[in-house]
Structure formats: C-alpha cells, structure tokens
C-alpha cells in the first residue's frame, strides 16, 4: 500500500466526552464527541489534501473515523506509543488535551502514517456484532466469577439465570455473525483461509476481519506496528531496556494471544518456533508475543497473496 502526502494534517485528541483538534500551530478547537460535534468539525475541514489523524483509544475513535470517512475524509489511526515517543523526542513531556492534539498533528507531518481503509456497511455491521459479542462474553465471565463466590441460594439462582440469558444472547449474536459471513463470499473465503491455520478459529478470524481491514494490504513491519505487536526499545544512553509492545489494536492482540497459545500446542511449526525461542533464553511471555507476531505476519502474507497455509511458510524463522 502506497502512502500519499498531505498538505494539511489535523491532529485529534479524543476522550469520551469531547474531541480536541489541532488545525495548525495557532491553536486547538474543541468539539463534543457526538454527531453534532462531528458535523461542526466537518464544516471546518477542507477535503483538499487533508488527513485527520487520531490515536487508537480503545474504541472512542471509531465513530468519528467512520463519520469522516463517509464524507470522503482520509483518516489515520496511529499507535499512541509511537506518538508519545515522538513527543518525548520533541521535549514535550507535559500531557494535556491541547498538547496531545498538537503532537499528533506534528507526528502525522513527520511520519506520514497510513490511511485507514474505509469499512463497508457489511464490515461495519460485522464490527458492531463482534464488539457486542465481546461485551456479552465479558459479562458472562464476570457472572461466572460471582457464582464461584456466592453462598446464598437465591443469589446463586439469580446468577445462573443471568448466565443462561447471556448464553442465549451470545448464541443469537453468533448466528447473526455467521449469517453475515455466509452472505458474503469474500468473508467466507477469508474465514476459510484463516482457519486453515491451526490455532486460528472462527472467533479469531472474525476479529481479524472486523478489526483489521488492513490485513493483506501492508507489509509485515507496518501490520505489526499497527496491531501493536512490534517491540519498542526502551534504551537510554548505555542502559539497554527490555523491548516491549504497547498500544495498537487491543482486540486484535487479544485474539492473537489466544491463537498463539493454541498454536503453541497444536501447530507444529509455531510450537517449534516457540521452543527454539525458549532454548535461546527468551522469557515465556516474550516468546508468546513473538508467536503472535509470527502468526500475524504469516496470515497477512496469506491474505495478500491469496495463499493457503503452508507449514513451511517463511520457514517461520
């Protein structure tokens, strides 16, 4: 995927209630984080060679990004760790909404991040269903934890009723997801291809389709950084810190973690890769992250090249 340059970059800092937008070095304008605020912002944006750049903020950025894309505005969503590191390089150690918006704009001008592909209506629907399923699963997990510690009989019956209701609703959502995938040949092909990789099941495949539309469109370094599985150095002077991952697409990382844990047990090449890392002194957690990154790189290449899973894919080195 090629990256074009833009004459104007808008840096957007997003919170639950508001968005702060840096149009230029002169100041920041605030808007409410709702449809009314989006419309007001739209009136201030020139579509000519303009890109709006925001950080991945756990989902708060999604409504604004989708709104702007609907009106033909290019949007980039960037890893907040990269922005903070850039701010430190500039000597901007303070952190406020105004400073953050300015730094995001400066970061965009310096780095020229990739523009996020616009999601189709079906992809937006799939995304919404995937998020709802995730919410329900979390609620069910909490109720099951409550059941483990409950002693009052009536309380236990109440919890069991709630778990049953959540089971039914999750099943209903999953049927809608399956129907949506079945009605879209492209989704079917992607799911079928992804699930040939031992460790990647339907839920992981769904997450990749819904939350990572860039899959197959970026190179391995770009996709790793976007998801947040590319390790960042923590070096200073002669001190060599641990390389860590940070930011990116949390939902995709969570799905890749489950896939990697499964693959370490059931996917021979990934298992061999993992064991080799441990033998070389890599900590278990770091080795799992490396397997997550390896799986992502492999499936990204599979989708890009319309290739099926090959146990010798890239020699998994």
Give a verbal description of the structure.
With about 325 residues, the protein is of the alpha/beta class. It folds into three domains: about 10-110, ATPase, nucleotide binding domain (Nucleotidyltransferase, domain 5), CATH 3.30.420; about 120-185; about 200-315, no CATH class. It has twelve helices and five strands. It has helices spanning about 35-45, 60-70, 80-90, 95-110, 120-150, 155-180, 185-195, 200-210, 220-225, 250-265, 270-280, 285-305; strands spanning about 10-15, 20-25, 25-30, 50-55, 75-80. The chain has a five-stranded mixed beta sheet with strand order 3-2-1-4-5. Helix 5 (about 120-150) packs across helix 8 (about 200-210). The two termini are about 25 Å apart. Mean pLDDT is about 85; it is low at about 230-240.
Q: What does the average pLDDT come to?
A: 87
Let me know the number of strands.
5
Strand share of the residues? 5-15%
The best one-word shape is globular
Could you give the order of strands across the largest sheet? 3-2-1-4-5
Largest sheet composition:
5 strands, mixed
Radius of gyration: 21 Å
**What proportion of the residues is helical, as a percent range?**
55-70%
What is the count of structural domains? Answer: 3
Order of helices and strands: EEEHEHEHHHHHHHHHH
- Indicate the structural class: alpha/beta
Count of DSSP-assigned helices? 12
Residue ranges: pLDDT <50 for 5 or more in a row? Answer: 232-241
Span of the ends, CA to CA:
25 Å
